[in-house]
Amino acid sequence: MIFFPHIPLMEKALPILRQLAPEIEAVHAEDPKRKEKVQKMRAKGISMLLTTTILERGVTFPNIDVAVIGAEDSIFTESALVQIAGRAGRSKDHPDGMVTFFHYGKTEEMLKAKRQILMMNREGFKMGLLDHQ
Predict the structure, then answer these.
(1) Is the dihedral of CA 38, 40, 44, 49 positive or negative?
(2) What gap in Å lies between CA 11 and CA 13, rounded to an integer?
C-alpha cells in the first residue's frame, strides 16, 4: 500500500506506477468503487493499492509493505503514521512488513511515531507476542 497526503498527487502517480503493473488501483473517500477495490486487494487481484488516509485503520491485508509519500505533510500526524505503519505485518504467516516514509525532511510527528512503534514492539516482545525486536 502506498499512502498519499492528497488525492491530486495520488492521481498523478497512478499512471506512472501503472507502467510497472497495470492492475494497480487508487482509492479515496469520494471513490464510488472504493469497497470493490479494497475487496480486489484482499483477493490479491491487484498488487498495489494507492490510498489516502481513508485506509489508515480498519483494513487488513496479509503480507504487505507500506509506504507513505510526502510523510512530512501535516495530515500525517503521529497517530496517523502509527496507524498506517500498523497495516504492515498483520498476519501470523507474514508478521514482518516494511514501512517506509518518503519525505522532504523529518518532522517531529515522524520521530514521535517511530519512537511509539519501537516502544510498542519492545512491549510486544516482552509479552511474547513478537518473535524478535
Answers:
(1) negative
(2) 5
Residue 17 contacts residue 24 (beta carbons within 8 Å)? yes
75-115 pLDDT, tens digit each: 999 999 999 998 887 666 777 788 999 999 999 999 999 99
Sign of the torsion formed by the C-alpha atoms of 71, 76, 77 and 82: negative
Please provide the size of the chain in residues.
Answer: 133
| Euclidean distance between the first and the last CA atom of the chain, given in angstroms as a whole number | 23
Distance separating alpha carbons of residues 82 and 37, to the nearest angstrom: 23
On whether the CB atoms of residues 24 and 14 are closer than 8 A, the answer is yes
Q: Which residues touch 115 (CB under 8 Å, ≥6 apart)?
A: none
Phi/psi for 112 (5° steps) reads: -65, -40
pTM summary value: 0.89
Buried-exposed string 42-57: b where 16+ CB fall within 10 A, e elsewhere? eeeebebbbbbbbbbe
